[in-house]
Design goal:
This protein is α+β, with helices and mostly antiparallel strands. It has 3 domains: about 110 residues, PAS domain (Beta-Lactamase, 2-Layer Sandwich); about 110 residues, Beta-Lactamase; about 70 residues, Beta-Lactamase. Helices cover about 30% and strands about 25% of the residues. It contains 13 helices and 12 strands. A hairpin with a 5-residue loop joins β8 and β9. The chain starts with 14 loop residues before the first strand and ends in a 13-residue tail after the last helix.
């Protein structure tokens, strides 16, 4: 009989169990045995409720198992058992994700748990510390997590959106035709970053850049997806202002590499913004001005403005 621990990475800081439709343990990793304090040989085939109920750390999860069994599709629940901030010795985070069969009924479940005192177990804390909005969905597109930045960008609280479809919450203009997270789940691959417009809780449109990837279980089966998004309102406002100016305008970093190029600059030079971004401006324009008298160079070196400086460029 194959070792039930060999199909998963043993170096994971999180413990995990998989169970069948009767909640009997079918596989586990060594970290699970360590956290549970049970010998590996005593885990396989046992009912997880028996193990959790006899362990005060996990007893709170037992009342949630039966309701999950009765639900159709993929469902999940996450509980913090104790608090690492209060110094509790056995502060744990636990997540149960049910796996549906072809009929939608539960055929098994993935159970993960981590010691909240361990750095890699605080993944949710790390998720909530980043500036980009992040949310996860199950295979039906129902939201299973929604980080702090997602709340700040959209105005929705996590508890208000959990279990709702991302389409009904975010109402993006690409939901019906070019949904990033649907495509990543379908192709089992990360998608390219794209611009979308979502609707915030207050009803206002929010321009965002989104990127999505599939969520895979230990066997490589897609169980959902994750999408990151960031508010680009200020960037678009900046671009709109630049593009409304009749003069050619471009910006560059301290090395002289072009970082933006407005429409007037495109018309005057014949170059398109995507063709010049990241290139040294002197190599794009072949200006008659030498390096020492370059207006942009003087501005950056001396911190002063140059007005009505004449030069010749090549389009």
């Amino acid at each position: 009989m194959p070792d039930p621990t060999t199909n998963s990475p043993q170096q994971l800081m999180s413990g995990y169990l998989t169970v069948d439709s009767n909640w009997l343990i079918t596989s586990f990793n060594e970290r699970a045995a360590d956290i549970l304090g049970i010998e590996s040989g005593d885990l396989l085939g046992r009912h997880c409720r028996e193990i959790f109920y006899n362990d005060s750390r996990f007893r709170a999860i037992c009342s949630h198992l039966e309701p999950l069994t009765k639900k159709r599709g993929s469902n999940s629940i996450q509980l913090d058992l104790g608090s690492a901030n209060s110094g509790e010795k056995n502060a744990l985070q636990m997540q149960v994700i049910t796996l549906p069969g072809k009929t939608g009924s539960m055929i098994g479940a993935f159970i993960g748990f981590s010691d909240l005192r361990e750095p890699l177990a605080a993944s949710r804390l790390a998720l909530d510390s980043i500036a980009e909005g992040v949310f996860t969905v199950d295979r039906d597109g129902k939201i299973t997590s929604f980080n702090n930045a997602a709340e700040n960008i959209t105005g929705w609280l996590e508890e208000e959106v959990l279990g709702q479809t991302c389409e009904s919450v975010l109402q993006s203009n690409i939901c019906k035709t070019d949904c990033a997270i649907v495509q990543s789940i379908a192709t089992k691959a990360s998608g390219e970053e794209r611009i979308a417009y979502i609707v915030g809780k207050d009803g206002h449109s929010i321009p965002v850049k989104v990127c999505a990837a599939p969520l895979l279980d230990m066997t490589g089966t897609v169980i959902g997806g994750v999408e990151t998004f960031r508010d680009i309102t200020k960037k678009l406002q900046h671009e709109l202002i630049l593009n409304a100016v009749a003069d050619g305008v471009f910006t560059a970093d301290r090395e002289g590499r072009i970082t933006s190029f407005n429409r007037a600059a495109e018309k005057i030079t014949g170059w398109r913004e995507e063709e010049v971004l990241g290139k040294i401006c002197s190599l794009v324009f072949f200006s008659s001005t030498n390096v020492q008298s370059c207006a942009l160079g003087i501005c950056m070196r001396e911190g002063r403005s140059i007005i009505d400086h004449e030069t010749f460029i090549i389009g």
